[in-house]
Amino acid sequence: MFDFDRLDKLIHEKGRLAIMTLLAARPNWPFQDLKAELKMSDGNLVTHLRALHQAGYVAYRKEILIRPQTRYELTVRGRKAFQNYLRVLEEMVRSAKT
Amino acid sequence: MTDSDSASRHLRVIRSLMERATIYRSISAPTALVGGLLSLGGFAMAYYAKHHRHHPLSPTEFLVVWLVILALTCLANVIFLSRGCARRGEFFFSSGMKCALMSVAPAFISAAVLTLMIHRPIELALVWIAFYGMGLLATQHFAPRSLVILGMTFFLTGCGLVATWKHLFLSNPHVEPSALVVSGIMAATFGGYHLAYAAVVWALGEDRDEPVPSTTGPENV
After folding, report:
1. Structural domain span for residue A56
2. Which domain holds residue B60?
3. Contacts of residue A93 in chain B, CB cutoff 8 Å?
4. How many CB pairs under 8 A join A and B?
5. B112-129: per-residue pLDDT in tens?
6. Which of B24, B86, B186, B195 could be cross-linked to B36 through a Cys-Cys bond (beta carbons 3.0 to 4.6 Å apart)?
């Protein structure tokens, strides 16, 4: 029997999983690009990012180029948590096949 | 749905999202087909000018013909890319598009500036081939493999042609390849390479859009 408690509940939510996946794919993402890619509302995206930030998975920095923007990136802890989440999912699939 | 199905589905979502974030095809296969055929048309025009009009393309005519081909190919690319974006429910000016534009800009702008400075068709062709390859290679961190190979092929061909041209013609400035020969080089590269690229992309099924599940739907995982 597979132990579901091993799945990180914070990441195991559709919106946050999508955010973590995109952040894992590139070094960092501007807020507006994340929003456009995920087609989320500002409020929804901010809520998810805040939850991930509070867990120490996501870091952000504000910068002013042509206009102010906030860039988000995975922390070392966040990247490890995401890799671990993937590993657990893969184990889940493997255990079902055997 | 079993837990295993759910886990597999999650992994598929993760994979398609990561691919969407990391891979961007700046030249679609239909665009390559259109560009390739137009390039062969450019050669046909040079052939017509020499053998039927009995007056080869002048350097200015050569420039105009290939700029028109470039403009039509760019227009086709915008149409095909925007259709693809609409099909996938993405914005045309996506982050991938912005990355691609920023990456190719230095090489393409350099080629444009050099086009203003040089007049001989052979020099124009060599600059366009090499710099086009450099532009495509600049997208290698997020472009699919087929596009990187296309860029590398253009770049190596450009370098090879520069070396050949230097060896054959620079020692004798009175010898100049005709507009027909240069149009043949353009047709072989911009025509032949793009047609081969389109064929490979279609054969490998790389142009198929992977369905990416919505991240904002009512269904929760």
Report:
1. 7-90
2. 26-204
3. 4, 7-8, 11
4. 75
5. 999 999 988 999 999 999
6. B195
Domain annotation covers residue A1 = no
B91: DSSP letter:
-
Flag whether residue B3 sits within 8 Å of chain A, measured between CB atoms.
yes
Which pTM value belongs to this model?
A: 0.68
- Neighbouring-strand partners of residue A29: A72
Instruction: Please indicate whether, in this complex, the C-beta atoms of B11 and A86 are within 8 angstroms of each other.
Output: yes
Output the CA angle B194-B200-B202, nearest 5 degrees: 105
A36 touches chain B (CB under 8 A): yes
Q: What's the CA gap between B24 and A7, in Å, rounded?
A: 31
* Three-state secondary-structure class, residue B44: helix
Q: Is B162 among the domain residues?
A: yes
Q: Please give the Cα distance from B40 to B8 (Å, whole number).
A: 47
- ipTM, 2 dp: 0.70
CATH (domain of A80): 1.10.10.10
Burial of B220 (0-12, 13-18, 19+ CB in 10 A): exposed
Residue-wise pLDDT for A10-22, tens only, equals: 998 889 999 999 9
| Chain B residues with CB-CB distance to A33 below 8 A | 95, 98
In a domain, B210, yes or no: no
